[in-house]
Amino acid sequence: MQINKIMSYTFDKEDLKQIDAIKAKYPTVQSATMPVLWYAQDKFGHVNAEVQHLVATTLDIPESHVHGVATFYTQYYKKEMGKYVLDVCTCFSCQVCGGYDMLHYIEDKLGIKAGETTPDGKFSIQEAECLGACGYAPMLQVTNDVYVNHLTKEKIDSMIDGLKEDKLPEYEEILPPQLISKD
Ligand code: FES
């Protein structure tokens, strides 16, 4: 049973060609772990234990190394996720600016907890470490893509309404504080 599951994840000839091209960019094979995990996630939608095993055997590196990299970053999905993954930052600045209030609001709204996926497969919620937008706290990221900054309940309502219709939130241009006019 386990073997069948592992066999369901394979790289074809074209994948192996692409992976060889990735490997050629790095001085050691281990250095290619992150981009090859990204490649695998693009193909399979996640990098669960079976995909991590496939990456390790393809690169001929220890599975423990691949597992260590995959589990360090929330950006690598360790299981099947919803179509839209809401990574809500609850670290440092976001936490003091209401990150947990925003997280709990989303949980209540979608009827799931962080780490879960809605039954229709549309949304997953994750609690994320700092996403590097501390100046725009509290914030979240949608499926490793667009950031939604300065979160409010109203902003979350409109974001979720949009995503239900497969409309991604627009990128927000926010000037750094030194460029904002004080007039
Ligand atoms: S603390 Fe949330 S982006 Fe840095």
What layout of secondary structure does this protein have?
Elements: H1 2-7, H2 13-23, H3 33-44, H4 49-59, H5 63-72, E1 84-89, H6 92-96, H7 99-110, E2 123-128, E3 140-142, E4 147-148, H8 153-164
Parallel strand pairs: 1-2
Antiparallel strand pairs: 1-3, 3-4
Helix pairs in contact: 3-4, 4-5
The protein binds FE2/S2 (inorganic) cluster (FES).
The site of FE2/S2 (inorganic) cluster (FES) has 12 residues, from helix 6.
Would you mind describing this structure in some detail?
- The protein is an alpha+beta fold and 183 residues long.
- The protein folds into 2 domains: 2-72, no CATH class; 84-164, Glutaredoxin, CATH 3.40.30.10.
- The chain starts with a helix and ends in a 19-residue tail after the last helix.
- Residues 1-6 have low confidence and may be disordered.
- The protein is 43% helix and 9% strand.
- The chain is built from 8 helices and 4 strands, in the order H-H-H-H-H-E-H-H-E-E-E-H.
- The longest helix is centred in the N-terminal third of the chain and has 12 residues, at 33-44.
- It has helices at residues 2-7, 13-23, 33-44, 49-59, 63-72, 92-96, 99-110, 153-164, and strands spanning 84-89, 123-128, 140-142, 147-148.
- Helix 3 crosses helix 4 and helix 4 (49-59) packs across helix 5.
- A hairpin with a 4-residue loop joins strand 3 (140-142) and strand 4.
- The chain has a 4-stranded mixed beta sheet, with helices on one face.
- FE2/S2 (inorganic) cluster is lined by residues 89, 91-94, 130-134, 137, 139.
